[in-house]
Amino acid sequence: MRFAIFGVGAIGGYFGGRLAQAGEEVTFIARGEHLEALRAKGLRVDSINGDFVLPAVTATDDPSRIGAVDVVLVGVKTWQVPAAAESMRPLLGEDTLVLPLQNGVEAPAQLAKILGREHVCGGLAKIISYIAGPGHIRHTGAEPYIALGELDNQPSDRLERLRRALQRSGVSAEIPPDITAALWAKFLFVASWGGVGAITRAPIGVIRSVSQTRRMLEGSMQEIYEVADALNVNLAPDAVSAAMGFIDTLPPNGTTSMQRDIIENRPSEIESWTGAVVRFGRDAGVPVPINEFTYNSLLPLERKARGQLDFPE
Q: pTM to 2 decimals?
């Protein structure tokens, strides 16, 4: 299959690298130092599942030079999705599938609004990875996994072809019966962990072992579960306990991308994670006091990182 990886960060770099390593035709769309490194040295991935280097990759900052592809894997940050959608128009053919892998639940609708619902599926990834340097991705935890599904949850040949390509690359991939529920189950998990992690500045091993922060984490998840229920999302009754069980399997030094961005004074995805919980809760009439406290507490740091406030820490 012919892939375009739009955004070669921790997610796009890892999964795009595995697809290219498996022999798929992959073009990486990047910019700045990342693009320069990909062109000069290729892509390096350090992984708990085996390190590898792709010494020569196809990389560009101009989607119009690529033409139509079978799949666009979207790996940009959540706030970049609408602009990315406009830029990826030249990549779309009649049956091109756009697979967003952002944390959060809003990317599929944002992409569909610009590119057409027929081109977009729902998707989520589970992996602990980060950019170690230009052209260098490090995977430190969690078995790489992607769930994908048509937005109407109907089976399709194109989705099955993509699932098989991911499996061939060594990625666990499945098509769940309800992709919206799967997205919210991931959202419940990652938004809570990201928020509590950013507040405490502690890795998951500490958060889950201190009774007070463990209760805070579980309470945040319960709020998101209640919001999802009010919005008629069919989450499993044990979604919170399942997420907490998964938390207990993670490597103790694990952190989320939002947590790392806030700690390192970079713009984060807080508006699409904790901020989205607050918005959804307000719209659904569901109180979310833990998430609201977390969002309000982190907002000054987010605005400082975006140049909207200036104060010493």
A: 0.93
